């Protein structure tokens, strides 16, 4: 998707200091609810989905030095917007690996896919996968200090 600015919103880039994915989902989900980007039930639905279908993505297979990410999401019924909210974690938290669910990966960034349109998640996912696997962009994110810098980096 060429128009990355539409996928991201600097207002939906969060800095989180949490110790589990449940705490992360509670914190980010509450903020998304306040901003009316999601509906009540979003946090619970996303938490349940994560337990059944983990979203941790081990990027060390692409680049041994890369940080791992998670791409949590849930059904369209809980979303009022199409785009991606980004959470940078103060310290990495464990997510189960989407490819090998019995393993965990330490995640430093979570990219929350919000999608209010049925059958259109693939373009969001393909944009993110392209971003994750080009050079070492995820580790470069760590050098940025502000929401604005992160927004500019992920949309260019």
UniProtKB/TrEMBL annotation:
Residues 5-156 form the PTS EIIA type-2 domain. InterPro entries: PTrfase/Anion_transptr (IPR016152), PTS_EIIA_type-2_dom (IPR002178), PTS_SugarTrans_NitroReg (IPR051541). PANTHER family: PHOSPHOTRANSFERASE SYSTEM MANNITOL_FRUCTOSE-SPECIFIC IIA DOMAIN CONTAINING PROTEIN, PTS SYSTEM FRUCTOSE-LIKE EIIA COMPONENT-RELATED. This is PTS sugar transporter subunit IIA. Keywords: Sugar transport, Transport. It comes from the Bacteria. Pfam families: PTS_EIIA_2.
